[in-house]
Amino acid sequence: MRPSERDPHLAEMWLPYEEGVELSRAGRSERALSKLEEALAAGERLLGPDSAHLYDILEGLHVNYLFARRYEEAAACGLRALDRAPEVHGTSHPRTGDVMDSTAQALRQVGRHREALTLDQHNLVIQTQAFGGRHPATIRAAVNITASHLALGERGEARDYLGIAERGAAVTDGVPPHTLARMRAHRRAIEDGVPGPDGRSTFPEFAPEQEPRYRADAEDGDLAAMVRLGGVLERQGRASEAERWYRRAASEGVAPALAALGALLYDAGRKEEAERCLGDAAAAGDVHGSFNLGILLLNEDRPGEAERWLLRAHEAGVGPRPAHMLALALERLGRDEEAGRWYRSAADAGLPEASGKVGRRLADAGDLAGAEPYMRRAAEGGRDTDVLDLALFLGRTGRPGDRQEAERLLRRVAERDPIRPAGVLGALLLEQGRPQDAEPWLVRAGENGDVDAMMNLYGLTTALGRPDEALRWLRRAADAGDPQAADLLRRLPAGPRRSRLWRRRSES
Which residue among 83, 190, 282, 445 has its CA within the 20 to 30 Å range from the CA of 295? Predict the structure, then answer.
């Protein structure tokens, strides 16, 4: 939405849009989608479905659907946004190319590789015109074209575009590690004839409204339709029926069916059977099977076994998450230096939680200047834990204004989380000499089980001459297992003299 469009007659459209943007920044994607969908419905009613003024709403929906892994909706909104992009940015603007890139990503996820290829080819032209052939964005576009050609079985064309990417990368600094890993995986696929990086690439578009057609085709023995039907049923909560169709396709050795079945079984707590299915899918070259098998093994505290499969998923180039999980596996194995490199790889590829991890590691090592950009990048992802970590970081820098920024961040997350952020905000306000402002936040956190907040309330109410309240908070902290609180209780006199003793202390 552009500032010039803040017409009060269009408030039905731009108010929910702005609220959706803020929710998205705060990491509340489901609520953000609801508001953006409301904005789109209002805009279509007020301006018509073809209006260029709907571009920002459609782009916002497209991005949030991608984050939510709702790839069909992401693709549809991306394509609609691209229809309007010439009027907004122009046909050759890099921003238009970026939307082409992300829309192609969504199309690849649902098996629409030919459409993805067309967008990737247009994007390559745009990025080359804007930045030249040696820019990371241009190299990424060529790698995406390579992936689409491989998924379509066009190895000769894939080889040509991979050559473009490799020549650019050979003379360019700053190509992200995950892009280089994708190039290596594609080179192996071209030379060795191994499966392409998308385990679902043999199956075309997945559309819930097509359930009757999928069912008819599946009953006629169409293996792809069985997998698609299973996906529709699983999304509808009909897990038992979805399992039956996945099993029918899996019994024929269909790798994506094995991967989907394994994930379904794991969610149902049937871990041994899930591991067998995911193992079979991974061995057949299904990248989603490899990744989910790695996650399963990591969750079962088997990081040594998980490493292999997470590395394979990463090399397939399906995004930064496998690198992040691989780093976690290596960290559990005590290979801290390697873990740090993989965390940084995932962070540099845009994964907020990996950025937070890198920032915390750098801060713990005393490199505050190096930590801050990563911690800010993580907080921009909107997760409350990352916003809280940034606030704690700013609270220790000692720079003018940082404590005020920390307070603003803490208030933002404390409104949603009544435990740790509220307790940290209360502690920060106490340090600033604002006990009246601090107490409500500490009470909120203490009542919800935050032991640190209980101990701060013990100290605060003691200082304010309210010994009965102080004793109550001390007892609650001791009951919650705090050793300092238990030790203080043991050293207090017993019986009715206790409160008088506290009063004398507060009066002295």
Answer: 190
